Amino acid sequence: MTILKKIMELLKDRELTSIEIASEINIPKDNCASYLNTLYNDGRIKSKKDKRPYKYKIVETPKALLKQLYDFMSSKCNIVGEISEKQVDLLETIKGVVN
């Protein structure tokens, strides 16, 4: 697994600082900053710059947001029970996009 993939895997579940990332994957802090800069410039991660050290996290893709919407709508429909045919079609369309 490449270092960039390792960083993305670490950031999948939580926000981390560059120091925490470097420590987790055992690379020098300077190298870590370079990798983070690459991911940031590619639009794959963003940083919270409200305080230091900066924390990094993965940018939510439209597909990931759509999946969250599908999961939410699906669970609400299961609770309510009855949904219209149009709503079923909409859920199926969203499901096709996210899968």
From TrEMBL:
Signal peptide stretch: none
Membrane-spanning segments: none
Domain Transcription regulator TrmB N-terminal as annotated: residue spans: 9-60
Annotated Pfam families: TrmB
Protein name (record): Transcription regulator TrmB N-terminal domain-containing protein
Highest classification ranks of the organism: unclassified sequences, metagenomes, ecological metagenomes
